[in-house]
Amino acid sequence: MSDKNKAILEEANAAIAEGNNEGFLSCCTDDTEWTFVGDKTLKGKEAVRQYMAMTYIEPPKFMVSNLIAEGNFVTALDDITMKDEDGKAAHYSYCDIWRFRDGKIVELRAFVIKT
């Protein structure tokens, strides 16, 4: 199961990199919940859709260093660059812990630091 979940996350992230937010969202459950530790929690696919529309002004650039899969979880250690509200490149390092249910993303717990 863990290798399958890892492949699903790689497919979902490839969709985001191509600007295909709906492709990513097709990999999520309707009740998906994203928690950005110390910031906010998004509840449901529609909340994530709105977040992506506002945050991913243009497709972000991922530099994945590690994907660690075990059971229903995939942990990603990454760096990401995306445009901020002023159109300038903003750089972040993060650790994402993704939980899967029935082959779909049901939860994200993200620890994000602007670098």
Could you characterize the architecture of this molecule?
The protein is an alpha+beta fold and 115 residues long. 28% of the residues lie in helices and 50% in strands. It has three helices and six strands. It has helices spanning 2-17, 21-25, 45-55; strands spanning 28-36, 40-43, 61-70, 73-83, 89-101, 104-114. The protein has a six-stranded mixed sheet, with helices on one face. The protein is globular.
User: Total helix count?
Assistant: 3
Overall structural class, as computed from helix and strand content, comes to: alpha+beta
Rg calc: 13 Å
Low-confidence stretches: none
The first-to-last residue Cα distance is 34 Å
Broad shape: globular
Overall pLDDT level: 93
The helix/strand series, from N terminus to C terminus, equals: HHEEHEEEE
Strand-residue fraction?
over 45%
Task: Please outline the major beta sheet.
Answer: 6 strands, mixed
Q: Count the strands?
A: 6
Strand order of the largest sheet: 2-1-6-5-4-3
Percentage of residues assigned to helices = 25-40%
Please give a handful of descriptors for the protein shown.
single chain, 115 residues, alpha+beta, six-stranded mixed sheet, 28% helix
Question: What would you say about this model in short?
Answer:
The protein is an alpha+beta fold and 115 residues long.
List the helices and strands and how they pair.
Blueprint: H1 2-17, H2 21-25, E1 28-36, E2 40-43, H3 45-55, E3 61-70, E4 73-83, E5 89-101, E6 104-114
Parallel strand pairs: 1-6
Antiparallel strand pairs: 1-2, 3-4, 4-5, 5-6
